[in-house]
Design goal:
Layout: E1 2-13, E2 16-28, E3 33-37, H1 44-51, E4 59-64, E5 67-68, H2 74-80, E6 84-87, H3 99-110, H4 114-127, H5 143-154, E7 161-165, H6 173-190, E8 193-198, H7 201-207, E9 210-215, E10 218-224, H8 225-229, H9 235-240, E11 252-260, H10 265-276, E12 281-289, E13 294-303, H11 309-318, E14 322-325
Parallel strand pairs: 3-8, 3-9, 6-7, 7-8
Antiparallel strand pairs: 1-2, 1-4, 4-5, 9-10, 11-13, 11-14, 12-13
Helix pairs in contact: 3-4, 3-5, 4-5, 5-6, 10-11
């Protein structure tokens, strides 16, 4: 659905050239929620704006729904962009218009006849749970309600792709959860494909099927969430499930165990202790249900002098778990 090949974007500033996106390749399959995560300045927003060519890349190709956007003229782009909805970080609502008026404005720009707009606006506000707030102005809405209006507006043209620019970063945790649940529901109901950028790992946990970690304009790790978590030395696993500093435990060896699929943390520990007659201690960790899989990390302490230590570690690895010395 979205394919990016060799994308580069450089900004020329008084201090010299700044490479914002440095040779990025990306594929988002139809119906997938793909997250790009990274710190401020990593190049995430520039990458997103290159997808609908609000920023035109210096090099590379962008293809959305089978159409190569980088080869289109501006008048052609305007038509194609109707198939790409955009959700903004700070809502970008018109304060002089009601919730219904903001959604209607998107339809006006598209040239939808007046007689058809009212029914579509009503349908969209109902879809995002705001049917009773149609006549409210942005100043009368909460942050979560404003973002719901923004989502309704982004869906006005019946797009197949949604781009989300830090859609929850201005919201409190409870409201964030509700918006993420709405986006996941809309993905399933409408068959949407979503590319989102975020710096919040909770967004990745709750919503994303696949993810890329971006740093200094490049992807340092990319792929399906379940696959990345299971890789040795996975940066994503460490970021999703931080275990904190390694404690000092004399006479014990500490290991970080990454769990994926339906593995239960309690059974891992109890089975290991029973089979190898070991005192297994859980030092830190958690297992959670993510959008794409059940996963987590445990830091366990094993008696360093135990004769069955090596066999116990082999058992864990043989069960498909990732085991690394804690560091």
């Amino acid at each position: 659905m979205i394919r990016i090949e060799g994308l580069r974007k450089t900004f020329h500033t008084r201090g010299g050239p700044v490479i914002a996106v440095d040779g990025v390749d990306l594929t988002v399959t139809e119906g997938e929620v793909f997250g790009v995560v990274g710190r401020s300045g990593a190049g995430k927003s520039t990458l997103l704006r290159c997808v609908n060519l609000l920023e035109r890349p210096d090099e590379g190709r962008v293809t959305v729904a089978g159409v190569e956007l980088t080869g289109l003229r501006e008048n052609q782009l305007r038509r194609v962009r109707q198939d790409i909805g955009m959700i903004h970080q700070h809502f970008a609502l018109l304060h002089s218009r009601t919730a219904a008026g903001n959604v209607s404005f998107a339809l006006e720009v598209m040239g939808v006849p007046r007689r058809d707009r009212a029914a579509r606006v009503e349908e969209l506000l109902d879809l995002v749970g705001l049917a009773d707030r149609a006549d409210a102005y942005p100043a009368q809405l909460s942050g979560g309600q404003k973002q719901r209006v923004g989502i309704a507006r982004a869906l006005a043209s019946r797009p197949r792709v949604l781009l989300s620019d830090e859609a929850t970063s201005a919201l409190d945790p409870d409201t964030t959860g509700a918006i993420l649940e709405l986006l996941r529901d809309l993905t399933k109901r409408l068959g949407l494909t979503i590319l989102l950028i975020t710096h919040e790992m909770d967004v990745v946990k709750r919503l994303c099927d696949a993810v890329a970690i971006m740093q200094e304009g490049r992807f340092v790790e990319s792929g399906p969430v379940a696959e990345l978590i299971g890789r040795p030395d996975s940066r994503l696993a460490r970021d999703l499930f931080p275990l904190g500093p390694v404690p000092t435990m004399p006479d014990h060896a500490l290991f970080d165990v990454t769990l994926t699929g339906q593995t239960d943390d309690g059974s891992v520990v109890s089975d290991l202790a029973r089979r190898h007659d070991l005192d297994v201690r859980i030092v830190a960790g958690a297992v959670e249900q993510l959008a794409a899989t059940r996963a987590g990390r445990l830091r366990i302490a094993l008696p360093q002098a135990a004769p069955t230590l090596a066999a116990a570690l082999d058992d864990l690895r043989g069960a498909g778990l990732t085991v690394e010395a804690a560091r």
